[in-house]
Amino acid sequence: AMLGPIIDHFGLAWSLRLGFLITTVARGALAVAPTERSMQLLIFGLLPVGHALGAPALTIAMKRCTGSESGNSVSTANFAWLYLALVLGIAACGPTIDLVTIFLASGMPRASRYSQLLWICSGLSLVGLMICIFTLE
Questions:
Q1: CA–CA–CA angle 49, 53, 55 (5° rounding)
Q2: Nearest 5°: CA angle at 38, between 33 and 41?
Q3: I want to staple 27 with a disulfide (CB 3.0 to 4.6 A). Which of 35, 48, 111, 122 is the partner?
Q4: How far apart are CA 103 and CA 34, in angstroms?
């Protein structure tokens, strides 16, 4: 991970919080992005930074919380569910980027046709941020 040194510097809890915060802001801003250029900056700039901070920190936090190093079958199953969710998310990224590229090429209106969905995604990121703030030490 290119942002590994930043995660090491801030620590796991703050990196996870920062990743969720950046992702929440990027998704919310994407829902109201006025121009194609601003959408591209959010999709290819801010959103990947949030995910690059959050995903590795989430994996490390999950591993610490489940204790999957101990070989406990329940912990291993929980870690497997996390990886399943990550793989499904990765699989959905390609088609999503293709759809966004197609819509940008055809010229999206000022407010995205999918702004409601983006607001829901931003809200889910906010829920993750709140969980990180109140549960991590």
A1: 110
A2: 125
A3: 122
A4: 14
Chain length of the chain = 137
Q: What is the pLDDT of residues 76-98, one digit of tens each?
A: 777 777 778 878 877 887 777 77
SS (H, E, C) 31-92: HCCCCHHHHHHHHHHHHHHHHHHHHHHHHHHHHHHHCHHHCCHHHHHHHHHHHHHHHHHHHH
Q: Which two tokens stand for residue 87?
A: 């793989």
CA distance linking residue 122 with residue 47, whole number of Å: 11
Q: Report in angstroms the alpha-carbon separations of 5 from 16, 20, 67, 110, 115.
A: 14, 18, 24, 38, 34
Decide if 16 contacts 23 (C-beta within 8 A). Answer: no
Give the model confidence (pLDDT) of 24-62 as tens digits.
898 888 888 888 888 888 889 998 998 888 888 887 877
* Residue whose entry in the numeric block shows the structure tokens 């497997």: 80
Q: Any residues with CB less than 8 A from the CB of 43 and at least 6 apart, and which? A: 30, 97, 100
Other CB atoms within a 10 A radius of the CB of residue 125 amount to: 22
